[in-house]
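for the writeup, i need someone to sanity check this before i put it in the appendix. the sequnce is what the collaborator sent (i think, or maybe the updated version? ugh). structure was predicted straight from it, no edits. if anything looks off just tell me and ill rerun, i have time this weekend
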Amino acid sequence: MTIAKNPKRHTTEERQAGAFISGATKPVRRNKILTPVRFAPEMIERIDKAACRLGISLSAFINASTAEKLERMEG
């Protein structure tokens, strides 16, 4: 008969670290509206490449570009 060890009990510090890490991986909810927009495949490729060069998401690139264009038009 094999004697099994009790499962390791996590210290408070380990539990806090685990909670911090799991909290960092949860999506952050923001007050944004999902809006389907159509782009030509070639345009999406160009936008995606530009976003990658900047190290941001495609969505962030589109948001920043739109905000910049609006500021120029309204300014």
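The two ends are 80 Å apart (CA to CA). Residues 37-75 form one domain.
thx in advance!!
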